Amino acid sequence: MPQREKDRVLARRRKRKKERAKLRKKGLLAPFTPKEAVKEVAKKPEKTPAKEAPKTDSGPTTPAG
């Protein structure tokens, strides 16, 4: 691999690493190590499943009666 191409690849990796670190800091990306992931799971309370909105018929919108 030519030196110039090698430098480009390494620069791309560094940039990606910085971007991922920023996202991780914001909480938009999973933790880096499994140990950190375990801590995160233990820290967060369990979420209850979201309730579904009541289903409406596709009939007339005016009330019957």
Task: Describe, in plain words, how this protein is organized in 3D.
The structure is a single chain. The chain has a domain at about 5-35. The protein has helices spanning about 5-25, 35-45. It contains 2 helices and no strands. The radius of gyration is 24 Å and the shape is elongated. The longest helix is centred in the N-terminal third of the chain and has 24 residues, at about 5-25. The protein is mostly helical and about 60 residues long.
Describe the structure using short key phrases.
65 residues; elongated; 52% helix; mainly alpha
Give the N-to-C terminal Cα separation. Answer: 80 Å
In N-to-C order, the SSE pattern is HH
What's the shape?
A: elongated
Computed CA radius of gyration, to the nearest angstrom: 24 Å
Unreliable parts: none
Helicity, as a percent range: 40-55%
- Structural class category: mainly alpha
Portion in strands: under 5%
Helices, by number, come to: 2
Tally the beta strands.
0
Mean pLDDT: 74
For the biggest sheet, the summary is: none
Walk me through the topology.
Elements: H1 3-26, H2 34-43
Offer a concise description of the structure.
This protein has helices spanning 3-26, 34-43.
